[in-house]
Design a protein that fits this description.
Elements lengths: L6 E5 L5 E3 L8 H4 L12 E5 L1 H6 L4 H6 L24 E7 L2 E11 L10 H13 L4 E5 L3 H13 L2 E7 L4 H9 L3 E5 L3 H15 L2 E2 L7 H6 L1 H9 L7 E5 L4 H15 L8 E7 L4 H4 L26 H10 L3 E5 L1 H15 L5 H15 L8 E6 L24 H8 L1
Helix pairs in contact: 4-5, 5-6, 9-10, 10-12, 13-14
Bound molecules: zinc ion.
Zinc ion (ZN) binds next to helix 1.
């Protein structure tokens, strides 16, 4: 692998620093004792030469004008696929239940990525890095979105993608993977089983591995959402950001983007980030305060965040503690309700994982936990079209009528 001097890695657990090119995935010493039934130790964080960037008087605009290349582990932006990844809309929601809101809700619609999910931000960067380093085959384990994302991005780049999915993944996501021409491998068991197999395959066959909380570059791709939020909010940080949480990688990406800006003195404080999990898959929040990690098998409608072992547990918890984040768990019923409210009030149909974050802000609103005039962001990570089954209990499509005005009148008036 080529050595880039503009960044290095730091182990989240032991703090060891590794030059770029010396390691590819986890910290070798911390990961040596990793087991299958606890979150992995040794996840790496990418650090840049912040002092040097400050010396060069890099402000937000000069970074942005150069596509944030100074804060990406790439040699040039031409390695990225010819697709519009990121730069997604941020909508201000003005009304709820026909009443205007005493605070601001901004909806960051990341379903507007090429494969309809936030995961494209990570696949984008991993694929570009592979291209710069002459790697042709990329493997990923996925509950569906990361796999369909990698498949789509690799299709655009002429790379080979091999996707390991739990056999229960939603059909739309599986269909995407096949349509993009990737090799799909359904695996009996859970996401965790698919994850472990993909790591073994990486060791055995040398494929480049995109797995989150294993490949440190996924967080670097995901962090770009924070740069966009800062710009879209007129160079201000929001008061709160509601983020759906499964394995703890997206939330770490959001934190990392703002932490880069903090390191450069561009922002002075961190926004408060609210980690929202489904009650049925709450292994990250449930273990924050405990010394021994215990796993409760996940059972939730929100398949994208249904995770037994949060792979990025240690980094996510570190961020949440360091920057005083908040946590919240919501029920599957609240997630479905939030999905319905969001669709009917905003025209945005989000998948259950994304609706989980919206359920979070609805809960805060109901409990008077949002300050008047505050700016609040909800991260909508994927499209509702990816998992139509999840909302079937709410859907009643009427029987067809004979095409006469009388029948129409009976039905709608
Ligand atoms: Zn370490």
């Amino acid at each position: 692998m080529t050595i880039h001097s503009k960044y290095k890695y730091q182990c989240v657990d032991c703090g060891a620093i590794y030059p770029a090119g010396e390691v590819t995935y986890l910290c070798p010493s911390c990961s040596a004792a990793n087991t299958d039934d606890t979150p992995p130790k040794g996840v790496l964080k990418v650090l840049y030469n912040y002092d040097e960037l400050i010396e060069k008087q890099k402000d937000f605009n000069s970074l942005r004008q150069n596509g944030f290349l100074d804060l990406l582990p790439l040699k040039n932006l031409d390695s990225l696929p010819n697709l519009r990844v990121g730069k997604t809309p941020l909508y201000l929601q003005k009304m709820l239940h026909k009443k205007s809101l005493p605070f601001q809700i901004f909806l960051k619609d990341d379903s507007q990525n090429p494969t309809y999910s936030f995961k494209d931000r990570a696949s984008n960067l991993v694929s570009a890095y592979a291209k710069e380093n002459g790697i042709e085959t990329i493997v990923a384990a996925s509950t569906g979105n990361a796999g369909s994302s990698l498949a789509g991005i690799c299709a655009a780049q002429g790379q080979k993608a091999i996707i390991l999915v739990p056999e229960a993944a939603p059909k739309a996501k599986l269909t995407q993977i096949v349509m993009y021409g990737a090799t799909i491998v359904p695996v009996q068991g859970t996401y965790d089983d698919a994850f472990d197999l993909s790591i073994q395959a990486t060791e055995e066959f040398g494929w480049y591995n995109r797995n989150t909380a294993f490949n440190p570059l996924t967080i670097e791709g995901k962090k770009t959402v924070s740069f966009e939020l800062y710009e879209q909010l007129d160079y201000q940080i929001p008061d709160r950001i509601f983020v759906p949480v499964g394995d703890g990688v997206i939330i770490s990406g959001v934190y990392k983007g703002f932490e880069d800006l903090l390191q450069l003195g561009i922002i002075k404080t961190m926004p408060c980030i609210v980690a929202v999990q489904s009650e049925g898959s709450n292994n990250l929040i449930a273990n924050i305060q405990s010394d021994i990690f215990t796993v409760k098998p996940s059972q939730t409608i929100a398949d994208s965040i249904s995770v037994d072992i949060p792979r990025n547990f240690y980094m996510a918890v570190d961020f949440l503690k360091k920057y005083k984040g908040e946590t919240l768990q919501v029920s599957d019923a609240a997630i479905i309700e939030a999905s319905t409210v969001l669709s009917k009030h905003t025209g945005l149909f989000a998948e259950p994982a994304a609706a989980t974050a919206y359920a979070g802000i609805l809960h805060y609103f109901k409990n008077n936990k949002i300050q008047p005039d505050s700016k609040n962001v909800v991260l909508l990570t994927g499209s509702g079209l990816k998992d139509l089954n999840a909302v079937q209990s709410k859907i009643q499509i009427p029987k067809a009528i004979t095409p006469t005005l009388d029948h129409l009148k009976n039905m709608v008036l």
